[in-house]
Amino acid sequence: MSSGAVRPLTIAVPKGRILKALAPLLERAGVDADALRESDRRLVREAAGGALRFLFLKPDDVPTYVEYGAADAGVSGRDTLLERAFDVYSPIDLGIGRCRLVVAGPRGATPPDLPRVATKYPRIAAAHFAKQGVQAEIIQVSGSVELAPLVGLAHLIVDVVETGTTLRDNDLEIREVVTDVSTLFIANRASWKLRSAELGGLCSRLRAAVIEARAQAAG
Ligand code: PRP
What we know:
- By secondary structure, the chain is of the alpha/beta class.
- The protein has helices spanning 17-28, 34-37, 62-67, 78-83, 122-131, 165-169, 189-194, 196-217, and strands at 9-14, 44-47, 52-57, 73-77, 89-93, 99-106, 116-119, 137-140, 156-161, 172-181, 183-187.
- The strands form two sheets. It has a six-stranded mixed sheet with strand order 2-3-1-4-11-5. The protein has a five-stranded mixed sheet with strand order 8-7-9-6-10.
- Strand 7, helix 5 and strand 8 (137-140) form a beta-alpha-beta unit.
């Protein structure tokens, strides 16, 4: 069956906000990223004349595809990687998708000693409150987290804040910052060894692109 053809280098990318920032960064690194800008619903997209292909995934699934080797590399938020300990290599912080993971609650309200906390990040939230000696009840939700304190599901939330608009529009305020978040380039451990020339070259160019983008942003 095998013709000896090498599988295209496969990169898992998150659908949604990050794509917009990712395409220019990849292009700065010399990668053909036109396929990231097309608006159809194809989940596998070839690039660079077939040498490369992108897999379009929900952000939380990117590290799973990379860990199991269905993708050689991927682009994933530090929040996702912290929540579930994936066995992947993470050589570069891409400096895009910067946001903060915070504890937030209704403006001016004091939470009880044993708060209920709604979050998409149950492990990070549990570890955070345990470290502070606060016995919190963690309630896992999968989106629209800011709703939970408005309707009595929870007293607090642990969620990511980027512009702060969602908190503001729902009369919530930040109580504490749990951690800063940004987007990492990750690689499958076997691919990192077996395709070291391609991945190593890509990483060097990406590192240079990140530095260049940062210098440009600083003016
Ligand atoms: C994320 C996050 C916040 C919001 C923060 O939600 O969970 O709700 O973005 O961004 P902001 O500070 O710029 O307002 P997302 O848009 O991914 O949708 P979700 O609520 O369905 O998770």
